[in-house]
Amino acid sequence: MNYRVIIPAAGQGKRMGLGYNKLFLPLGGRALIAHTLDVFLQDSSCETVILSTNEEERELFLSLSLKGDRSKITFVNGGVERQHSVANGLSSIDAKEDTLVLVHDGARPFITREVIAKVVQKANDNGAAIVGVPVKDTIKRIQSSVVQETIDRSSLWQIQTPQAFRLSILHEAHQWARVNNYLGTDEASLVEKISYPVSIVEGSYDNIKLTTKEDIYFGEAILQAKSQ
Ligand code: CTP
Ligand code: MG
């Protein structure tokens, strides 16, 4: 099943605190985003990579050292929030096309083709599918530094990307969000708002999003383990 992927890459990496976009952090000698891009560029089912970037960083993205076919990349401008960066990518696709669209965080370099294939298959069957893993920790609700309750974690999952959708569904969800001024932290939250059922497939705990400084040594360790 062929698909296109939108990769939002126009953030600033504030929580990582490097003073530059964390996607250019070197991991195993290459920029973080180069690892992410190569997974999709080397996947024959991936037709196009729509990369949403800050315009002033375009040259940096163009000079990345990549192993895959860089001619599959098309650029769009990022927006103020991640959701806007994805929306810009979405509007670059002809709305009439019958295609599957994936959204994958630039900051998740350890996604595998196996998990991509699983979520693509599920979205092809059901229209909307996301990747996640069951929560491992005990989760409590806290207010004013005091525990309010322990939440039953048996039905809680941590959500990752990729998230995969039939184009028409993702379009409708983004349109709803625009009209209602709704800002979500992922695409599925918008699709939930239009009451379309979102399926889940189990991913892998190492599909981390590099977000804060300590994720750098987790990232280095995962990369090393994978290259053995
Ligand atoms: N992103 C984007 N456009 C934005 C904000 C984020 O394309 N306006 C992208 C990031 O580049 C990243 C992904 O969305 O690949 C997930 O976002 P996050 O991990 O929050 O990255 P940043 O926004 O860069 O980090 P922070 O929130 O700490 O500033
Ligand atoms: Mg952010």
TrEMBL record:
InterPro entries reported for this sequence: IspD, IspD/TarI, IspD/TarI_cytidylyltransf_bact, ISPD_synthase_CS, Nucleotide-diphossugar_trans
Superkingdom, natural source: Bacteria
Pathway listed: Isoprenoid biosynthesis; isopentenyl diphosphate biosynthesis via DXP pathway; isopentenyl diphosphate from 1-deoxy-D-xylulose 5-phosphate: step 2/6
Its EC number(s): 2.7.7.60
UniProt function note: Catalyzes the formation of 4-diphosphocytidyl-2-C-methyl-D-erythritol from CTP and 2-C-methyl-D-erythritol 4-phosphate (MEP).
HAMAP family: IspD (MF_00108)
Protein name as it appears in the record: 2-C-methyl-D-erythritol 4-phosphate cytidylyltransferase
Gene source species: Mangrovibacillus cuniculi
Organism placement in taxonomy: Bacteria, Bacillati, Bacillota, Bacilli, Bacillales
